[in-house]
Amino acid sequence: MSPAFSRALRSFKHRNYRLYFFGQLVSFVGTWTQMTAQRWLVYRLSRSVFLLGLIAFADQIPIFLLGLFGGVIADRFKRRDVLLVTQSLAALQAFVLAYLAASGAVRIWQIFALASFLGAVTAFDMPTTQAFVVEMVGPADLGNAIALNSSLGNIARTIGPALAGLMLAAYGEWSCFLANGLSFLAVLVALSLMRLMPRAASPRTGSYAHFLGEGLAYVRSRPVMTAVLALFGLTCMAPFSTLMPAFAEDILGVGARGLGLMMGASGLGAAAGALMLAARENGAGRCREIALGVVVYGLSIVVFSASKSFPLSLAACAGAGWGLLWAYAGSNTLLQTLTPDVLRGRVMSLFAMTFMGTSPIGSLLAGFGARSFGAPMTVGIGGFLCLAAAAVFLASSASAGDAAFNWLAVDSEG
After folding, report:
1. What are phi and psi of 253, to 5 degrees?
2. CATH (one of 1.20.1250.20, 3.90.180.10, 3.30.160.60, 1.10.1040.20) for 1-192
3. Which pTM does this prediction carry?
């Protein structure tokens, strides 16, 4: 086995992480299967593209509204216990949706209500999952585990929709929802089998408002963390994937099949970026790494906005996936490295709110911009704004961020 390959998989030496990785892989495939079938069901019942956008908003807005409370729960209670509850509730949502779809009595409002319920569950699940990683692998392998986790979603994004297409054609939407509900059993079993060291949880004295204030004050007192959150939030607002169908149909003329290839190219680029990150040695340069990811993402979508060539557009999609993955993984690693464990859930809830909260806003702005200026100019402006934000970030905080990272790495080893 080559040294680079060994470095890429070093988190697998931890038994708890092996259980987590393969359990989550099954679950993520189920999630993408349900997501594809849910969108299809909404469109089949309504024939409304507006409702397709609205269902995504209904799924994400609870994360923005409740994310900070999710971070408090992640810090005040045992994280594995929280995950057992959230994963069980997510499975219940899938089973209810499967029953409604199989009965033929499903209505649009029920789909929206269940999507919002799942979003509320995710608001507590996401920061807890992010904060739980260090308990499975320890600080030394944290960056590697985050990179491998990033590859999970991109693998599932490739498998899940394809599986959904087969199941939709053979059985209907209910089968996809049922499969997703069953997929959560893999995570629940994995969590139950883990052997974890005791963790010093935050004291439960004091109000929830006090706990929220502690997390916000900690981030506010560290400019590099504030800068990372701001940069990644602005990057997620760039209207790239939202307008991709318009490029496939009206500009490149490649239709639905071309759209699928472009989405697949973005996923492959992200998967390649995740593997490259996983093979890296731990070290400094996190701020430069984040900025590099944003620059590659910005340049890629500028090229995409101007392209009239389908092969060039595919390459630009792959570059955008690579860049966004590097920005995400670098931001995640830096924030977690600079955060003590008692505050980890609250800080990661801010990170989750940053990209889950700004993406719907970016999608909304993309719609208005495309209607006023056209899709190519709107996407191009988003790319140039990413480049400008990365330049400001590098000029103002990269040196301070890397120094903080180096200090913490030395301190944790000593």
Report:
1. 65, 35
2. 1.20.1250.20
3. 0.76
